[in-house]
Amino acid sequence: MPALLAAIPPQGPQRSAKPWRGLSHRAARVITPFYRRYPYTGPMDLFKLDPRGCYSPAEPFFYSRIPKAANTTIVAALARQSSFQPRFRRRQDPKYRFQRPLLLSSRQVQRLEREAFVFTVVRNPFSRVLSAYLDKVGRRRHQGRRFLAWAQAHGQPSDFLGFCRFLEAGALHLDMHWAPQADILCLPLSRFDAIGRVESLDRDLPEVLERLFGRHHLEPSQRRGTTTNAALQLQEAYRAEETAIIARLYRRDFELFGYDPTLPRP
Question: How confident is the model at residue 76 (pLDDT cuts 50, 70, 90)?
């Protein structure tokens, strides 16, 4: 698994469009040990971001889940092998097996800093955005309704080109499933020990599991979650305008995670 690059440009603070959001974020930084140590300054709602953090004090590890980047597969593999058993658990879904940053104690935050293996897995922005569209819009899920209403109100097509224009018109951070990956990490990039890729998940995930649980605990990885096969549809979906919009909007993702912002053509 590729280690994080040494020099990472810092992300400046973002001003919230909703006053209550700014107040709630400031309260979290005052009250909770995790956000006092690692204040989130990005554009997303902290209380939507927080469930994306998975901490296990047993191994220990911290996994920052990125939607539409195999996070269901990864967290299921972690849950199968982790010895951590929470005292209280709201749901049986593996995503709720681990501790959220908001609920960590001061001692746990200190241990996270000293001992935890911190990692995430990212995805090529071209295939990730297309996957979000195919899943949330193509399957008429609730996350896609605002786009369809916007397209109708503004005389825009409801296809992938219209979705790209929707993102450019101000919806880039409307939902976690298509927000830039650099903006939805629970920890600063400089704190990550490793960043894997969906494109090499069959190699990267076993390396994480071996690092955390030892080779004798390894099991064959099984893909979970919703599959859209977006990577196989890139050439059909992306023309000049779509490619230019996504390359522009997700510039930091392309730069920080080493993806090529020019879509290969056959």
Answer: very high
The pTM of the full predicted model, rounded to 2 decimals, is: 0.86
CA distance 79 to 100: 14
Please report, as a single letter, which amino acid is at residue 15: R
Rounded CA separation 263/181 (Å) = 18
pLDDT of residue 265: 66
- List CB contacts of 185: < 8 A, sequence separation 6 or more: 64, 66, 120, 192
How far, in Å, CA of 31 to CA of 101, rounded? Answer: 12
Q: Using 50, 70 and 90 to split pLDDT, how confident is the model at 90?
A: low
For 156, other C-beta atoms within 10 Å of its C-beta total 16
Distance CA(202)–CA(218), nearest Å, equals 13
d(CA 257, CA 179): 15
Ranges of each domain in the chain: 20-124+184-217, 126-176+229-257
